[in-house]
């Protein structure tokens, strides 16, 4: 399974990638901005997009809207990564088309399990 991880923070990308590859045995590609992530998703198929909510230029919610409007990308599950994971915010993210939400800071030892559970929901 191939995951595209989109986050503007290098430390988050590095830790999540290491966790998902080493523990979850996922193939992980990374992007440092929402625009780069959308371009990568169009260029190389992926099974899941993990998308940071707060990013400069184009935030994760705007990127999610663009993904949902694109016929080639709209069916790819999107999991949002965010420090803003209160229940009311999470409900809003799900209503906008996210498969689920993973709160930051995440536990690298359980990140793969969280991803697996969210993918099983679909």
Give a description of the structure.
The protein is an alpha/beta fold and 122 residues long. It has a single domain (2-120), classed as 3-Layer(aba) Sandwich (Rossmann fold). It has helices at residues 10-22, 34-43, 60-69, 87-95, 111-120, and strands spanning 2-6, 27-31, 48-52, 78-82, 100-103. α3 (60-69) links the parallel β3 and β4 (78-82).
Coarse shape = globular
Order of helices and strands: EHEHEHEHEH
Low-pLDDT residue spans: none
Highest-level CATH class: Alpha Beta
The appropriate CATH architecture is: 3-Layer(aba) Sandwich
- Structural category: alpha/beta
Secondary structure: helix percent: 40-55%
Q: What is the fold-level CATH name, i.e. the topology?
A: Rossmann fold
Q: Round the Cα radius of gyration to an integer and report it.
A: 13 Å
* Beta-strand fraction estimate: 15-25%
Layout of secondary structure:
Blueprint: E1 2-6, H1 10-22, E2 27-31, H2 34-43, E3 48-52, H3 60-69, E4 78-82, H4 87-95, E5 100-103, H5 111-120
Parallel strand pairs: 1-2, 1-3, 3-4, 4-5
